[in-house]
Write a structure and sequence with these properties.
Helix content: under 10%
Low-confidence stretches: none
Strand order of the largest sheet: 1-3-8-5-6
Strand content: 25-35%
Shape: elongated
Order of helices and strands: EEEEEEEEEEE
Radius of gyration: 24 Å
């Protein structure tokens, strides 16, 4: 069925139906394409406006992954939705010409990332998967030792990431802790892990 986009439109038009071939990547975790961390980029295409391409990989527990999507043909591709083995979304990003999701796999299992567009655009893209080292420990027991007065480069790799640092202080001394860069919250604990 073909009709006018707006009430009151009349006139002649042409229509063509083109065979796009089979869908290049399945749209679900069960039919998705397997990818491996640090492997070569994998090409894909949003072939029609509601197309969803799914990529799957086996994740190790407590490991941080970054899945990236890049498109040279459209600003409106590369909407990403990463899901754990239960199908729960663990990270997502809006469509853009270059987008990534970074997350920690809380448990081992098969994770999936869905790639889609804005519902109007089509085009090609490429994706990569890498393991991201966590630069500083996430618990007091894995804290990074720091030297007073020396700046330490740091990075919060994923949403929810926390970095712990440890240092030796003298009782009765006055100290200050500060950061530059993104806005952060600093919490100080005593040796018994009581909040100061």
């Amino acid at each position: 069925e073909t009709s006018a986009s707006y009430t009151g439109y009349t006139g002649t038009y042409s229509m063509v139906v083109t065979n796009l071939g089979p869908d290049d990547h399945g749209g679900t975790a069960a039919t998705g394409t397997s990818v491996t961390a640090a492997a070569a980029a994998r090409a894909g295409e949003i072939q029609f406006t509601t197309d969803v391409d799914t990529f799957v990989f086996t994740a190790a527990a407590n490991t941080v992954y970054r899945f990236s999507c890049t498109s040279a043909v459209s600003y409106d591709l590369c909407r990403l939705s990463a899901k754990n083995s239960s199908g729960v979304v663990v990270s997502s990003a809006y469509e853009n010409s270059s987008t990534s999701v970074t997350f920690r796999a809380a448990t081992a299992g098969t994770y999936s990332v869905e790639v889609s567009g804005d519902g109007y655009s089509v085009g090609s893209y490429s994706v990569t998967l890498v393991v991201v080292p966590d630069d500083h420990g996430d618990t007091p027991g894995t804290a990074t030792g720091v030297t007073l007065g020396l700046s330490r480069a740091s990075n919060l790799e994923f949403i929810g990431d926390v970095d712990y640092f440890s240092m030796t202080l003298v009782a009765g001394g006055a100290y200050t802790a500060s950061t530059t860069g993104i806005s952060t919250t600093i919490t100080v604990y005593d040796p018994s892990l009581g909040q100061v």
